[in-house]
From TrEMBL:
<keyword id="KW-0808">Transferase</keyword>
<dbReference type="InterPro" id="IPR030668">
    <property type="entry name" value="Spermi_synthase_euk"/>
</dbReference>
<dbReference type="InterPro" id="IPR030373">
    <property type="entry name" value="PABS_CS"/>
</dbReference>
<comment type="similarity">
    <text>Belongs to the spermidine/spermine synthase family.</text>
</comment>
<dbReference type="InterPro" id="IPR035246">
    <property type="entry name" value="Spermidine_synt_N"/>
</dbReference>
<dbReference type="InterPro" id="IPR029063">
    <property type="entry name" value="SAM-dependent_MTases_sf"/>
</dbReference>
<dbReference type="InterPro" id="IPR037163">
    <property type="entry name" value="Spermidine_synt_N_sf"/>
</dbReference>
<protein>
    <recommendedName>
        <fullName>PABS domain-containing protein</fullName>
    </recommendedName>
</protein>
<dbReference type="GO" id="GO:0004766">
    <property type="term" value="F:spermidine synthase activity"/>
</dbReference>
<dbReference type="GO" id="GO:0005829">
    <property type="term" value="C:cytosol"/>
</dbReference>
<dbReference type="InterPro" id="IPR030374">
    <property type="entry name" value="PABS"/>
</dbReference>
<dbReference type="Pfam" id="PF17284">
    <property type="entry name" value="Spermine_synt_N"/>
</dbReference>
<feature type="active site" description="Proton acceptor">
    <location>
        <position position="223"/>
    </location>
</feature>
<dbReference type="GO" id="GO:0008295">
    <property type="term" value="P:spermidine biosynthetic process"/>
</dbReference>
<dbReference type="Pfam" id="PF01564">
    <property type="entry name" value="Spermine_synth"/>
</dbReference>
<dbReference type="InterPro" id="IPR001045">
    <property type="entry name" value="Spermi_synthase"/>
</dbReference>
<feature type="domain" description="PABS">
    <location>
        <begin position="66"/>
        <end position="304"/>
    </location>
</feature>
Length: 369
C-alpha cells in the first residue's frame, strides 16, 4: 500500500468531488468517499440545514416539496444521522469560510457546529482535546515548541498549557470568527488563548508551515474539521511533507484521523502517505466521543527520523507533570492507561489498514492471526 499513490489520490479526489462523474460511476465508491454521489447537481438545491422542530440533526437533512426525507447531504457518513435536542440557539452566522452555529443542547451543554457538522460539545470535548494534545506531548521528553493547526476554539491550547516544559505554542487558525465566537460561548475552552506562551496566527496553515523554520517544532497537532472543504488539504501529501519538514528529528505529529467505523479508506490513505513521509513511527489511536459520527474519533501519530518515539508507552507521563494551576482544571478523560489503551485496535481495522508497529529504525507491517 505504501507506494500506491494512485489509490490514495483517487480516494481524496472522490471525497472532494474532483473525480470525473464517468470515473466515479464506473466503479464502486468506498463508503468513506461519497462526495460524488452526495453532490449530484439535481439533488443539491433541496437541502435544509440545522434545527428543525427543536432538534439539530447532523448531517443536514434534505427534503422534497412534500416534506419527505430525500437524503443526508454529507459525504463523510452517508446513510446515518445524529440528533441533539436544542434548548436555545445562541448564535448563527457565516464567516468567510463556513457557517457557524452555536446552540445550547438539552444534554450536552453548548454545541459548536461548523457547516452543519458538530465540532464539540461542552460535555464530551474533554475526550478529544485531551487525547489529541497529550498523546503526542506525553510521548516525548520535555516538549518545548508546539504548533497547533486549526483549534480555534482554544481547547487544545488549554491542554497544551498543562505542560510546563513548553515554552512556545504557535496556533494557526484560518477563521478568526471561530475564535471570537468561542471566546463568547465556550470560555472553558478559549481560556487556552490566555496562556502567555501562545502566539496566534490567523491564516492558512499550509502557507504558515511553508514559511516555518526547518526543524522548528517538537510537536505539531492538527485539530481540523473534516477533510471536506477548507480542511481538505490537511490530509494530503504536500501538507504532511511540509509538516515533517517543520518538525525536529524525533518530533511528533498528531492529526485528527476520523472514525475507524466509517473512514477506513481515508485512514489507509493517511497512513500510507505518512509511512512514506515520516521516517520514524506511525500509529493509529482512537477514543470515544459520543457526539462525533459513530461515537469514536481517531488520531494518527507520527514521528520523524531521529530519537525513537515509543508512542504506546508515554515517556513523559501526565501524572508526573508539574501543575500549572492558573489554566488548569482536572483532566476528565486522559491518563496514562487510556494513552496506551488507545493504541489497541479492533481486528478488522488491523486487517483493513495494515497497521504498523515500530521497529527501532523502521516501520513494518504487523501480521494479524
Ligand atoms: N466530525 C467532526 C470532527 C471534528 C474535529 N475537530 C474538532 C475541533 C475541536 N477542537
Amino acid at each position: 500500500m505504501g507506494g500506491d499513490t494512485g489509490k490514495e489520490s483517487e480516494c481524496l479526489k472522490i471525497m472532494n468531488g474532483k473525480a470525473s462523474d464517468e470515473n466515479v460511476s464506473a466503479r464502486a465508491i468506498p463508503s468513506c468517499c461519497m462526495k460524488a454521489r452526495a453532490s449530484a447537481p439535481e439533488l443539491e438545491a433541496k437541502c435544509h440545514s440545522t434545527v428543525v422542530s427543536g432538534w439539530f440533526t447532523e448531517p443536514r437533512s434534505c427534503f422534497d416539496g412534500d416534506g419527505y426525507l430525500l437524503y443526508y447531504n454529507n459525504p463523510m457518513w452517508p446513510g446515518e444521522s445524529h440528533s441533539l435536542k436544542v434548548e436555545k440557539i445562541l448564535y448563527k452566522g457565516k464567516s468567510e469560510y463556513q457557517e457557524i452555529l452555536v446552540f445550547e443542547s438539552l444534554t450536552y451543554g453548548n454545541v459548536l457546529v461548523l457547516d452543519g457538522i458538530v465540532q464539540l460539545t461542552e460535555k464530551d470535548e474533554c475526550a478529544y482535546q485531551e487525547m489529541i494534545a497529550h498523546l503526542p506531548l506525553c510521548s516525548i521528553p520535555s516538549p518545548k515548541t508546539v504548533l497547533v493547526v486549526g483549534g480555534g476554539d482554544g481547547g487544545v491550547l488549554r491542554e497544551i498549557s498543562r505542560h510546563s516544559s513548553v515554552e512556545l505554542i504557535d496556533i494557526c487558525e484560518i477563521d478568526k470568527m471561530v475564535i471570537d465566537v468561542c471566546k463568547k460561548f465556550f470560555p472553558d475552552l478559549s481560556v487556552g488563548f490566555e496562556d502567555p506562551r501562545v502566539r496566534l496566527h490567523v491564516g492558512d496553515a499550509t502557507e504558515f508551515l511553508q514559511h516555518a523554520r526547518e526543524g522548528m517544532y517538537d510537536a505539531i497537532i492538527v485539530d481540523s474539521s473534516d477533510p471536506v472543504g477548507p480542511a481538505q488539504e490537511l490530509v494530503e501529501r504536500p501538507f504532511f511533507e511540509t509538516t515533517a519538514r517543520a518538525l525536529r528529528p524525533g518530533g511528533v505529529l498528531c492529526n485528527m484521523a476520523e472514525s475507524m467505523w466509517l473512514h477506513t479508506h481515508l485512514i489507509q490513505d493517511m497512513i500510507s502517505i505518512c509511512r512514506e513521509t515520516f521516517k520514524g513511527s506511525v500509529h493509529y489511536a482512537w477514543a470515544s466521543v459520543p457526539t462525533y459520527p459513530s461515537g469514536v474519533i481517531g488520531f494518527l501519530v507520527c514521528s520523524t527520523d531521529g530519537p525513537p518515539v515509543d508512542f504506546l508507552n508515554p515517556v513523559n507521563p501526565i501524572e508526573k507533570l508539574e501543575r500549572v494551576p492558573k489554566y488548569q482544571r482536572e483532566l476528565r478523560f486522559y491518563n496514562s492507561e487510556i494513552h496506551s489503551a488507545a493504541f489497541a485496535l479492533p481486528s478488522f481495522l488491523k486487517r483493513e489498514v495494515s497497521l504498523l508497529r515500530d521497529s527501532p529504525t523502521s516501520v513494518q507491517r504487523i501480521s494479524v492471526s
